[in-house]
Amino acid sequence: MAKPIGQRAYARHRGVALRAVQKAIERGLPVGRDGKIDPDRADAWWAASTDLSKHSNSVTGTGGAGGVPLSIELPAHQLEFQKARTAVMVAKAHLLAMEAKQRRGELVELAAVETWTAEQHQRVRDLLVGISDRLATRVPDEYRRLYDDQIARVCNELARTPVPPKPPSRSRRRR
Model pTM? Predict the structure, then answer.
C-alpha cells in the first residue's frame, strides 16, 4: 500500500487535470477519511471504471470521462465544428481508399477510357469499310453495292449511338 496523497498530487500521478480527479471523487473514487487518496486503490478503481474503447481526452488522459460518467452537452458552434471535422476525416479516408484502388489498378481515369473507346470505334469503322474493298474481286458489283450500303448503314448507326452518360455524382448536399 502506497502512502496516501492529496488530490493535486494524485492528478499529477495520473497525468490528468485536478478537476478530473474531483469529478472522479464525486463518482466514487475511494478516498480516506482525511480526504487523502491511496494511489494503488485509486488506480485500480480508475482502471475498472475506464472504458478503453472511448477516445482519450486531454482532461482525464483516459478514454471517455476517465471512467467518470459525465453528461456534457457541447455548445452549438463546437458541435458544428465537430461535424465539419468528422466530414473532413471521412473525405480524407475516401480519398485514400480511392488512391489505393487506383494503385491496384481497380480504378482508371475516365479520359483514358474515353480515348481508348474512341480509338476502338474508329478501328471498327475502318475494318468495316475495308470489307467491300477486300471482296471487290470476288463479288459482283451489284452485291458489292449492297455490302457498301449495309456497311455505311452500320457505321452511321454506330456514329449516332450516344455516349453513355457519366454516372451521377455520389455527393449529397446536407442541410
Answer: 0.36
